[in-house]
Amino acid sequence: MKKFLTVALACCIAVSGCVAFAACDGGTDYDHTIVFYSSQGKNLTPTTQKAIESFEAKYPGWKVEHTQPGGYPQVLNKVRSDLQAGLQPDLAYCYADHVAQYMESGTVVDLNKYLTKADSYTYTVGDDTKTIDRIGFTQEDTEAFIEQFMEECRAKNFTGASKYNFAEDALMMIPFVRSTEVLYYYQEALDDLDETVPETWDDLWRICEKAHNKWDTCTPLGYDSEANWFITMSEQLGFGYTDVNENNHYLFNNSGAEEWLNKIKGYYDAGYITTQQLYGGAYTSALFVQGAEKGGLVFCIGSSGGANNQAGQIYTTEVARIPKTGDNGACISQGPSLVMLRGGHSVTNPDEKEIMTFQFIKELLDVSFQVKFSRVSGYNPMRTDVENSEDFQLFLNGKDEDGNSLTGADLVASKAVKVANGLNECFFTSPAFVGSSVARDQMTSVVQYVLLGQKKAKDALADAVKACGGNTAQ
Protein backbone atom coordinates (compact mmCIF):
# COMPACT_ATOMS: atom_id res chain seq x y z
CA MET A 1 0.00 0.00 0.00
CA LYS A 2 2.83 2.39 0.89
CA LYS A 3 4.50 1.67 -2.46
CA PHE A 4 1.23 2.28 -4.31
CA LEU A 5 0.69 5.62 -2.60
CA THR A 6 4.23 6.72 -3.40
CA VAL A 7 3.77 5.92 -7.09
CA ALA A 8 0.37 7.59 -7.15
CA LEU A 9 1.76 10.75 -5.51
CA ALA A 10 4.65 10.85 -7.97
CA CYS A 11 2.18 10.56 -10.83
CA CYS A 12 0.11 13.39 -9.42
CA ILE A 13 3.14 15.66 -8.97
CA ALA A 14 4.44 14.86 -12.46
CA VAL A 15 1.34 16.39 -13.98
CA SER A 16 0.79 20.07 -13.36
CA GLY A 17 -1.84 20.50 -10.70
CA CYS A 18 -3.51 17.90 -8.48
CA VAL A 19 -6.65 18.13 -10.61
CA ALA A 20 -4.76 15.86 -13.02
CA PHE A 21 -4.62 13.04 -10.46
CA ALA A 22 -7.05 11.12 -12.71
CA ALA A 23 -4.30 11.15 -15.32
CA CYS A 24 -2.54 8.39 -13.40
CA ASP A 25 -4.47 5.89 -15.49
CA GLY A 26 -2.28 6.70 -18.47
CA GLY A 27 -2.08 10.46 -18.77
CA THR A 28 -5.66 11.44 -19.62
CA ASP A 29 -6.60 14.91 -18.45
CA TYR A 30 -10.33 14.37 -18.04
CA ASP A 31 -10.92 18.06 -17.31
CA HIS A 32 -10.09 18.68 -20.98
CA THR A 33 -10.90 15.35 -22.64
CA ILE A 34 -14.40 14.54 -23.88
CA VAL A 35 -15.05 10.82 -23.45
CA PHE A 36 -17.33 9.53 -26.22
CA TYR A 37 -18.76 6.00 -26.42
CA SER A 38 -20.25 4.66 -29.66
CA SER A 39 -21.07 1.36 -31.31
CA GLN A 40 -19.38 2.33 -34.56
CA GLY A 41 -17.59 -0.36 -36.53
CA LYS A 42 -14.30 -0.05 -38.39
CA ASN A 43 -16.04 1.31 -41.48
CA LEU A 44 -17.39 4.34 -39.58
CA THR A 45 -14.68 5.33 -37.11
CA PRO A 46 -12.37 6.89 -39.75
CA THR A 47 -15.17 9.26 -40.76
CA THR A 48 -15.88 10.19 -37.14
CA GLN A 49 -12.16 10.70 -36.59
CA LYS A 50 -12.34 13.53 -39.14
CA ALA A 51 -14.99 15.23 -36.97
CA ILE A 52 -12.80 14.72 -33.91
CA GLU A 53 -9.81 16.27 -35.66
CA SER A 54 -11.94 19.20 -36.78
CA PHE A 55 -13.17 19.76 -33.20
CA GLU A 56 -9.66 19.55 -31.73
CA ALA A 57 -8.37 22.03 -34.30
CA LYS A 58 -11.16 24.51 -33.49
CA TYR A 59 -10.72 24.19 -29.74
CA PRO A 60 -7.01 23.95 -28.84
CA GLY A 61 -6.36 22.27 -25.53
CA TRP A 62 -9.36 19.95 -25.84
CA LYS A 63 -9.32 16.33 -26.92
CA VAL A 64 -11.91 13.64 -27.70
CA GLU A 65 -11.39 10.07 -26.55
CA HIS A 66 -13.59 7.85 -28.79
CA THR A 67 -14.23 4.35 -27.44
CA GLN A 68 -16.30 1.53 -28.99
CA PRO A 69 -17.37 -0.94 -26.27
CA GLY A 70 -19.25 -3.04 -28.85
CA GLY A 71 -22.83 -2.94 -30.12
CA TYR A 72 -25.68 -0.98 -28.55
CA PRO A 73 -26.19 -3.46 -25.67
CA GLN A 74 -22.49 -3.28 -24.85
CA VAL A 75 -22.56 0.54 -24.85
CA LEU A 76 -25.56 0.42 -22.50
CA ASN A 77 -23.87 -2.02 -20.14
CA LYS A 78 -20.59 -0.08 -20.17
CA VAL A 79 -22.32 3.22 -19.34
CA ARG A 80 -24.36 1.62 -16.56
CA SER A 81 -21.24 0.06 -15.07
CA ASP A 82 -19.31 3.32 -15.34
CA LEU A 83 -22.12 5.28 -13.71
CA GLN A 84 -21.77 3.04 -10.66
CA ALA A 85 -18.11 4.05 -10.39
CA GLY A 86 -18.54 7.70 -11.36
CA LEU A 87 -16.58 7.10 -14.56
CA GLN A 88 -19.37 7.76 -17.05
CA PRO A 89 -18.58 9.19 -20.50
CA ASP A 90 -19.48 12.75 -21.40
CA LEU A 91 -21.30 11.67 -24.54
CA ALA A 92 -22.66 8.32 -25.68
CA TYR A 93 -24.64 6.63 -28.41
CA CYS A 94 -28.03 5.69 -27.04
CA TYR A 95 -31.52 4.48 -27.65
CA ALA A 96 -34.36 6.00 -25.64
CA ASP A 97 -34.65 2.96 -23.40
CA HIS A 98 -30.96 3.38 -22.49
CA VAL A 99 -31.57 6.94 -21.31
CA ALA A 100 -34.55 5.75 -19.27
CA GLN A 101 -32.08 3.64 -17.30
CA TYR A 102 -29.60 6.52 -16.88
CA MET A 103 -32.12 9.04 -15.52
CA GLU A 104 -32.01 7.91 -11.91
CA SER A 105 -28.26 8.58 -11.79
CA GLY A 106 -28.95 12.32 -11.89
CA THR A 107 -26.30 12.81 -14.59
CA VAL A 108 -28.44 13.12 -17.74
CA VAL A 109 -28.22 16.66 -19.11
CA ASP A 110 -31.30 18.36 -20.57
CA LEU A 111 -29.83 19.54 -23.87
CA ASN A 112 -32.34 22.38 -24.09
CA LYS A 113 -29.86 24.06 -21.75
CA TYR A 114 -27.53 24.64 -24.70
CA LEU A 115 -29.59 23.98 -27.83
CA THR A 116 -30.11 27.60 -28.88
CA LYS A 117 -27.91 29.39 -26.31
CA ALA A 118 -26.62 32.51 -28.08
CA ASP A 119 -24.05 33.46 -25.44
CA SER A 120 -20.35 33.36 -26.21
CA TYR A 121 -17.94 31.49 -23.95
CA THR A 122 -14.30 32.14 -23.13
CA TYR A 123 -11.95 29.45 -21.87
CA THR A 124 -8.25 29.35 -21.09
CA VAL A 125 -5.51 27.27 -22.70
CA GLY A 126 -2.35 27.73 -20.68
CA ASP A 127 -1.74 31.48 -20.70
CA ASP A 128 -4.04 32.08 -23.70
CA THR A 129 -7.79 32.66 -23.85
CA LYS A 130 -10.08 31.34 -26.57
CA THR A 131 -13.61 32.47 -27.31
CA ILE A 132 -16.54 30.44 -28.68
CA ASP A 133 -18.74 32.92 -30.49
CA ARG A 134 -21.99 31.05 -29.86
CA ILE A 135 -22.55 28.08 -27.54
CA GLY A 136 -25.74 26.80 -29.15
CA PHE A 137 -27.13 26.27 -32.61
CA THR A 138 -28.53 29.12 -34.67
CA GLN A 139 -32.24 29.39 -35.39
CA GLU A 140 -31.50 28.38 -38.97
CA ASP A 141 -29.87 25.18 -37.69
CA THR A 142 -32.70 24.20 -35.37
CA GLU A 143 -35.33 24.90 -38.02
CA ALA A 144 -33.52 22.37 -40.21
CA PHE A 145 -33.65 19.63 -37.55
CA ILE A 146 -36.30 17.09 -38.52
CA GLU A 147 -39.02 17.75 -35.97
CA GLN A 148 -40.24 14.19 -35.74
CA PHE A 149 -36.75 13.01 -34.81
CA MET A 150 -36.45 15.76 -32.20
CA GLU A 151 -39.83 14.91 -30.68
CA GLU A 152 -38.71 11.31 -30.11
CA CYS A 153 -36.09 12.71 -27.73
CA ARG A 154 -38.45 14.72 -25.49
CA ALA A 155 -39.05 13.79 -21.86
CA LYS A 156 -42.79 13.31 -22.48
CA ASN A 157 -41.87 9.99 -24.14
CA PHE A 158 -39.95 8.80 -21.07
CA THR A 159 -42.01 7.25 -18.29
CA GLY A 160 -41.01 8.72 -14.93
CA ALA A 161 -39.01 11.65 -16.30
CA SER A 162 -40.99 14.10 -14.17
CA LYS A 163 -39.88 12.18 -11.06
CA TYR A 164 -36.35 13.25 -11.91
CA ASN A 165 -37.42 16.89 -12.44
CA PHE A 166 -37.44 16.87 -16.23
CA ALA A 167 -40.08 19.08 -17.86
CA GLU A 168 -42.20 17.47 -20.59
CA ASP A 169 -40.25 19.21 -23.35
CA ALA A 170 -36.81 18.47 -21.87
CA LEU A 171 -34.41 17.21 -24.53
CA MET A 172 -33.14 13.97 -23.01
CA MET A 173 -30.97 13.16 -26.01
CA ILE A 174 -30.45 14.57 -29.49
CA PRO A 175 -30.82 12.56 -32.71
CA PHE A 176 -27.55 11.79 -34.48
CA VAL A 177 -28.62 9.78 -37.53
CA ARG A 178 -31.67 7.67 -38.27
CA SER A 179 -32.51 4.50 -40.12
CA THR A 180 -35.57 2.36 -40.64
CA GLU A 181 -36.25 -1.09 -41.98
CA VAL A 182 -36.50 -1.53 -45.73
CA LEU A 183 -37.16 -4.40 -48.11
CA TYR A 184 -34.10 -5.54 -50.06
CA TYR A 185 -34.98 -7.62 -53.11
CA TYR A 186 -33.83 -8.88 -56.50
CA GLN A 187 -35.76 -7.58 -59.49
CA GLU A 188 -34.33 -10.38 -61.65
CA ALA A 189 -35.90 -12.95 -59.31
CA LEU A 190 -39.24 -11.14 -59.44
CA ASP A 191 -39.04 -11.07 -63.24
CA ASP A 192 -38.47 -14.84 -63.23
CA LEU A 193 -41.62 -15.18 -61.13
CA ASP A 194 -43.56 -12.69 -63.29
CA GLU A 195 -44.14 -10.55 -60.19
CA THR A 196 -43.67 -6.95 -59.09
CA VAL A 197 -42.46 -5.55 -55.78
CA PRO A 198 -44.94 -6.54 -53.04
CA GLU A 199 -46.76 -3.59 -51.49
CA THR A 200 -48.64 -5.54 -48.80
CA TRP A 201 -47.84 -8.53 -46.59
CA ASP A 202 -50.44 -10.58 -48.46
CA ASP A 203 -48.59 -9.82 -51.71
CA LEU A 204 -45.31 -10.84 -50.09
CA TRP A 205 -46.58 -14.19 -48.83
CA ARG A 206 -48.09 -15.01 -52.21
CA ILE A 207 -44.74 -14.32 -53.92
CA CYS A 208 -42.89 -16.30 -51.23
CA GLU A 209 -45.01 -19.33 -52.06
CA LYS A 210 -44.20 -19.02 -55.76
CA ALA A 211 -40.49 -18.53 -55.06
CA HIS A 212 -40.32 -21.55 -52.79
CA ASN A 213 -42.05 -23.68 -55.40
CA LYS A 214 -39.66 -22.50 -58.13
CA TRP A 215 -36.42 -22.77 -56.11
CA ASP A 216 -36.95 -25.51 -53.55
CA THR A 217 -33.73 -24.73 -51.66
CA CYS A 218 -34.66 -21.05 -51.40
CA THR A 219 -36.00 -19.49 -48.21
CA PRO A 220 -37.79 -16.51 -49.77
CA LEU A 221 -37.77 -14.07 -46.81
CA GLY A 222 -35.14 -13.24 -44.21
CA TYR A 223 -36.01 -10.82 -41.39
CA ASP A 224 -33.00 -9.44 -39.56
CA SER A 225 -34.72 -8.50 -36.30
CA GLU A 226 -37.44 -10.56 -34.67
CA ALA A 227 -38.12 -7.80 -32.14
CA ASN A 228 -38.51 -5.14 -34.83
CA TRP A 229 -40.87 -7.41 -36.74
CA PHE A 230 -43.14 -7.95 -33.74
CA ILE A 231 -43.09 -4.26 -32.77
CA THR A 232 -43.75 -3.10 -36.34
CA MET A 233 -46.66 -5.49 -36.76
CA SER A 234 -48.11 -4.35 -33.43
CA GLU A 235 -48.20 -0.86 -34.95
CA GLN A 236 -49.52 -1.90 -38.36
CA LEU A 237 -52.14 -4.31 -36.96
CA GLY A 238 -52.90 -2.25 -33.85
CA PHE A 239 -52.62 -5.10 -31.35
CA GLY A 240 -50.44 -3.22 -28.84
CA TYR A 241 -46.87 -3.54 -27.61
CA THR A 242 -45.98 -1.23 -24.70
CA ASP A 243 -47.41 1.90 -23.13
CA VAL A 244 -46.17 4.86 -21.05
CA ASN A 245 -48.67 3.97 -18.32
CA GLU A 246 -46.57 2.99 -15.30
CA ASN A 247 -49.29 0.67 -14.05
CA ASN A 248 -49.58 -1.28 -17.30
CA HIS A 249 -46.48 -0.99 -19.50
CA TYR A 250 -46.86 -4.34 -21.25
CA LEU A 251 -49.70 -4.67 -23.75
CA PHE A 252 -48.38 -7.41 -26.00
CA ASN A 253 -50.13 -10.36 -24.32
CA ASN A 254 -53.26 -10.15 -26.45
CA SER A 255 -55.27 -12.11 -29.00
CA GLY A 256 -54.10 -9.96 -31.93
CA ALA A 257 -50.45 -10.75 -31.24
CA GLU A 258 -51.31 -14.42 -30.75
CA GLU A 259 -53.13 -14.54 -34.09
CA TRP A 260 -50.21 -12.93 -35.95
CA LEU A 261 -47.67 -15.27 -34.36
CA ASN A 262 -49.71 -18.30 -35.34
CA LYS A 263 -49.95 -16.99 -38.89
CA ILE A 264 -46.20 -16.55 -39.35
CA LYS A 265 -45.64 -19.92 -37.69
CA GLY A 266 -47.53 -21.41 -40.64
CA TYR A 267 -45.31 -19.56 -43.10
CA TYR A 268 -42.21 -20.73 -41.25
CA ASP A 269 -43.39 -24.33 -41.37
CA ALA A 270 -43.94 -23.91 -45.11
CA GLY A 271 -40.29 -22.87 -45.50
CA TYR A 272 -40.88 -19.22 -46.36
CA ILE A 273 -39.05 -17.50 -43.46
CA THR A 274 -35.80 -17.30 -41.57
CA THR A 275 -34.72 -14.72 -39.00
CA GLN A 276 -31.51 -13.56 -37.40
CA GLN A 277 -31.73 -15.91 -34.42
CA LEU A 278 -32.94 -18.85 -36.51
CA TYR A 279 -30.02 -18.26 -38.86
CA GLY A 280 -27.58 -18.82 -36.02
CA GLY A 281 -27.52 -15.26 -34.71
CA ALA A 282 -26.11 -13.87 -37.97
CA TYR A 283 -27.79 -11.22 -40.09
CA THR A 284 -29.79 -12.80 -42.87
CA SER A 285 -28.10 -10.46 -45.33
CA ALA A 286 -25.37 -13.12 -45.50
CA LEU A 287 -27.98 -15.48 -46.94
CA PHE A 288 -29.64 -12.83 -49.10
CA VAL A 289 -26.51 -11.96 -51.06
CA GLN A 290 -26.26 -15.58 -52.31
CA GLY A 291 -29.43 -15.27 -54.39
CA ALA A 292 -32.47 -17.54 -54.61
CA GLU A 293 -30.96 -19.98 -57.13
CA LYS A 294 -28.08 -20.70 -54.75
CA GLY A 295 -30.32 -21.46 -51.78
CA GLY A 296 -30.47 -17.88 -50.55
CA LEU A 297 -33.29 -15.35 -50.29
CA VAL A 298 -35.46 -13.32 -52.63
CA PHE A 299 -36.29 -10.72 -49.97
CA CYS A 300 -34.47 -9.46 -46.89
CA ILE A 301 -35.95 -6.99 -44.41
CA GLY A 302 -33.23 -5.18 -42.52
CA SER A 303 -31.98 -1.78 -41.45
CA SER A 304 -31.35 0.88 -44.06
CA GLY A 305 -28.26 1.56 -41.95
CA GLY A 306 -26.95 -1.90 -42.84
CA ALA A 307 -27.33 -1.49 -46.58
CA ASN A 308 -23.62 -1.94 -47.22
CA ASN A 309 -24.05 -5.62 -46.31
CA GLN A 310 -26.83 -6.25 -48.83
CA ALA A 311 -24.96 -6.06 -52.14
CA GLY A 312 -25.88 -9.18 -54.14
CA GLN A 313 -23.28 -11.57 -55.50
CA ILE A 314 -25.36 -12.65 -58.51
CA TYR A 315 -28.24 -10.21 -58.92
CA THR A 316 -28.48 -6.44 -58.46
CA THR A 317 -29.95 -5.46 -55.09
CA GLU A 318 -32.94 -3.16 -55.18
CA VAL A 319 -34.65 -1.47 -52.23
CA ALA A 320 -38.28 -0.70 -51.39
CA ARG A 321 -40.32 0.17 -48.32
CA ILE A 322 -41.44 -2.72 -46.11
CA PRO A 323 -44.90 -4.15 -46.89
CA LYS A 324 -48.03 -2.51 -45.52
CA THR A 325 -51.03 -3.94 -43.76
CA GLY A 326 -53.83 -2.50 -45.87
CA ASP A 327 -53.04 1.21 -45.96
CA ASN A 328 -50.96 1.14 -42.77
CA GLY A 329 -47.30 1.42 -43.71
CA ALA A 330 -45.84 2.18 -40.26
CA CYS A 331 -42.05 1.83 -40.20
CA ILE A 332 -39.90 1.72 -37.08
CA SER A 333 -37.60 4.67 -36.42
CA GLN A 334 -34.21 3.60 -35.13
CA GLY A 335 -30.59 4.63 -35.10
CA PRO A 336 -28.37 6.31 -32.52
CA SER A 337 -29.08 9.44 -30.58
CA LEU A 338 -26.55 11.22 -28.36
CA VAL A 339 -26.95 11.54 -24.59
CA MET A 340 -24.80 13.90 -22.51
CA LEU A 341 -23.86 12.76 -19.00
CA ARG A 342 -22.44 15.11 -16.38
CA GLY A 343 -19.65 14.75 -13.88
CA GLY A 344 -17.70 11.68 -14.92
CA HIS A 345 -14.16 11.14 -13.59
CA SER A 346 -14.71 13.75 -10.84
CA VAL A 347 -13.79 16.62 -13.15
CA THR A 348 -13.22 20.00 -11.53
CA ASN A 349 -14.91 21.96 -14.35
CA PRO A 350 -18.26 20.20 -14.99
CA ASP A 351 -20.00 23.31 -16.39
CA GLU A 352 -17.21 24.01 -18.87
CA LYS A 353 -17.04 20.31 -19.75
CA GLU A 354 -20.74 20.36 -20.68
CA ILE A 355 -20.28 23.40 -22.90
CA MET A 356 -17.34 21.86 -24.71
CA THR A 357 -19.13 18.53 -25.07
CA PHE A 358 -21.97 20.42 -26.71
CA GLN A 359 -19.47 21.94 -29.16
CA PHE A 360 -18.51 18.38 -30.13
CA ILE A 361 -22.19 17.56 -30.63
CA LYS A 362 -22.37 20.52 -32.99
CA GLU A 363 -19.45 19.04 -34.92
CA LEU A 364 -21.27 15.70 -35.28
CA LEU A 365 -24.43 17.43 -36.48
CA ASP A 366 -22.62 19.71 -38.92
CA VAL A 367 -24.05 19.58 -42.45
CA SER A 368 -20.85 18.47 -44.17
CA PHE A 369 -20.15 15.76 -41.59
CA GLN A 370 -23.70 14.43 -41.73
CA VAL A 371 -23.39 14.03 -45.52
CA LYS A 372 -20.10 12.18 -45.18
CA PHE A 373 -21.45 9.92 -42.45
CA SER A 374 -24.58 9.13 -44.44
CA ARG A 375 -22.52 8.16 -47.48
CA VAL A 376 -20.40 5.73 -45.48
CA SER A 377 -23.06 4.35 -43.13
CA GLY A 378 -26.31 4.31 -45.09
CA TYR A 379 -28.02 6.21 -42.25
CA ASN A 380 -30.22 9.20 -42.93
CA PRO A 381 -29.20 12.65 -41.64
CA MET A 382 -31.22 14.37 -38.94
CA ARG A 383 -31.56 17.73 -40.66
CA THR A 384 -33.32 18.85 -43.83
CA ASP A 385 -30.56 21.14 -45.04
CA VAL A 386 -28.35 18.06 -45.34
CA GLU A 387 -31.02 16.42 -47.44
CA ASN A 388 -31.14 19.49 -49.68
CA SER A 389 -27.39 19.83 -50.12
CA GLU A 390 -25.85 19.21 -53.54
CA ASP A 391 -23.55 16.46 -52.27
CA PHE A 392 -26.38 14.56 -50.57
CA GLN A 393 -28.55 14.82 -53.67
CA LEU A 394 -25.70 13.33 -55.69
CA PHE A 395 -25.61 10.46 -53.22
CA LEU A 396 -29.36 9.89 -53.42
CA ASN A 397 -29.01 9.70 -57.19
CA GLY A 398 -26.28 7.09 -57.05
CA LYS A 399 -23.30 9.40 -57.60
CA ASP A 400 -20.08 9.98 -55.69
CA GLU A 401 -18.81 13.45 -54.76
CA ASP A 402 -17.30 13.87 -58.23
CA GLY A 403 -20.50 12.83 -60.01
CA ASN A 404 -19.34 9.33 -60.94
CA SER A 405 -21.77 6.43 -60.69
CA LEU A 406 -21.65 4.40 -57.49
CA THR A 407 -21.32 0.63 -57.64
CA GLY A 408 -21.62 -2.36 -55.30
CA ALA A 409 -22.28 -1.72 -51.62
CA ASP A 410 -22.07 2.07 -52.06
CA LEU A 411 -24.88 1.95 -54.60
CA VAL A 412 -27.06 -0.20 -52.33
CA ALA A 413 -26.50 2.29 -49.50
CA SER A 414 -27.59 5.11 -51.81
CA LYS A 415 -30.80 3.26 -52.73
CA ALA A 416 -31.59 2.44 -49.09
CA VAL A 417 -31.08 6.01 -47.89
CA LYS A 418 -33.26 7.31 -50.72
CA VAL A 419 -36.12 4.96 -49.77
CA ALA A 420 -35.78 5.68 -46.04
CA ASN A 421 -35.60 9.39 -46.74
CA GLY A 422 -39.15 9.28 -48.07
CA LEU A 423 -40.62 7.51 -45.04
CA ASN A 424 -40.29 10.13 -42.30
CA GLU A 425 -44.07 10.53 -42.05
CA CYS A 426 -44.47 6.77 -41.52
CA PHE A 427 -41.99 6.47 -38.65
CA PHE A 428 -43.05 5.48 -35.14
CA THR A 429 -41.22 4.89 -31.86
CA SER A 430 -42.08 2.98 -28.70
CA PRO A 431 -42.26 4.47 -25.17
CA ALA A 432 -39.07 4.48 -23.11
CA PHE A 433 -39.05 3.28 -19.52
CA VAL A 434 -36.94 1.16 -17.24
CA GLY A 435 -37.71 -2.31 -18.56
CA SER A 436 -38.52 -1.33 -22.15
CA SER A 437 -35.26 -2.87 -23.34
CA VAL A 438 -36.22 -6.09 -21.53
CA ALA A 439 -39.57 -6.09 -23.37
CA ARG A 440 -37.74 -5.77 -26.66
CA ASP A 441 -35.46 -8.70 -25.83
CA GLN A 442 -38.50 -10.76 -24.89
CA MET A 443 -40.08 -10.12 -28.30
CA THR A 444 -37.02 -11.67 -29.92
CA SER A 445 -37.53 -14.75 -27.78
CA VAL A 446 -41.29 -14.90 -28.36
CA VAL A 447 -40.94 -14.99 -32.14
CA GLN A 448 -38.17 -17.55 -31.91
CA TYR A 449 -40.06 -19.84 -29.51
CA VAL A 450 -43.22 -19.78 -31.62
CA LEU A 451 -41.57 -20.34 -35.00
CA LEU A 452 -39.52 -23.24 -33.67
CA GLY A 453 -42.59 -24.75 -32.01
CA GLN A 454 -40.98 -24.59 -28.57
CA LYS A 455 -43.95 -22.71 -27.10
CA LYS A 456 -47.51 -21.98 -28.11
CA ALA A 457 -48.05 -18.32 -28.95
CA LYS A 458 -50.36 -17.78 -25.99
CA ASP A 459 -47.82 -19.27 -23.56
CA ALA A 460 -44.87 -17.43 -25.07
CA LEU A 461 -46.63 -14.07 -24.69
CA ALA A 462 -47.71 -14.78 -21.11
CA ASP A 463 -44.19 -15.88 -20.19
CA ALA A 464 -42.75 -12.72 -21.77
CA VAL A 465 -44.97 -10.44 -19.68
CA LYS A 466 -43.94 -12.37 -16.58
CA ALA A 467 -40.25 -12.03 -17.52
CA CYS A 468 -40.78 -8.28 -17.81
CA GLY A 469 -42.25 -8.17 -14.31
CA GLY A 470 -45.86 -7.62 -15.40
CA ASN A 471 -49.00 -9.68 -14.94
CA THR A 472 -49.96 -12.46 -17.35
CA ALA A 473 -53.67 -11.76 -17.74
CA GLN A 474 -54.99 -10.82 -21.17
Structural overview:
The radius of gyration is 24 Å and the shape is globular. It has helices spanning 2-14, 45-58, 72-85, 96-102, 112-115, 139-144, 147-152, 187-192, 201-214, 226-237, 255-269, 285-288, 350-364, 367-377, 384-387, 390-396, 408-421, 436-451, 457-467; strands spanning 33-37, 63-67, 91-94, 121-125, 128-132, 174-175, 177-178, 181-186, 221-223, 273-275, 299-303, 317-321, 331-332, 337-340, 380-381, 427-428. The chain has 474 residues and is α/β, with parallel strands linked by helices. It has two domains: 30-177 and 337-381, D-Maltodextrin-Binding Protein, domain 2, CATH 3.40.190.10; 181-334 and 410-467, Periplasmic binding protein-like II (D-Maltodextrin-Binding Protein, domain 2), CATH 3.40.190.10. Strands 2-1-3-14-6 form a five-stranded mixed β-sheet. It has a five-stranded mixed β-sheet with strand order 10-9-11-8-12. It is 41% helix and 13% strand.
Distance between the termini: 60 Å
In total, the number of strands is 16
**Multimeric status of the protein:** single chain
Please give the largest β-sheet. Answer: 5 strands, mixed
SSE arrangement:
Elements: H1 2-14, E1 33-37, H2 45-58, E2 63-67, H3 72-85, E3 91-94, H4 96-102, H5 112-115, E4 121-125, E5 128-132, H6 139-144, H7 147-152, E6 174-175, E7 177-178, E8 181-186, H8 187-192, H9 201-214, E9 221-223, H10 226-237, H11 255-269, E10 273-275, H12 285-288, E11 299-303, E12 317-321, E13 331-332, E14 337-340, H13 350-364, H14 367-377, E15 380-381, H15 384-387, H16 390-396, H17 408-421, E16 427-428, H18 436-451, H19 457-467
Parallel strand pairs: 1-2, 1-3, 9-10, 9-11, 13-16
Antiparallel strand pairs: 3-14, 4-5, 6-14, 7-15, 8-11, 8-12
Helix pairs in contact: 2-13, 2-14, 10-18, 14-17, 18-19
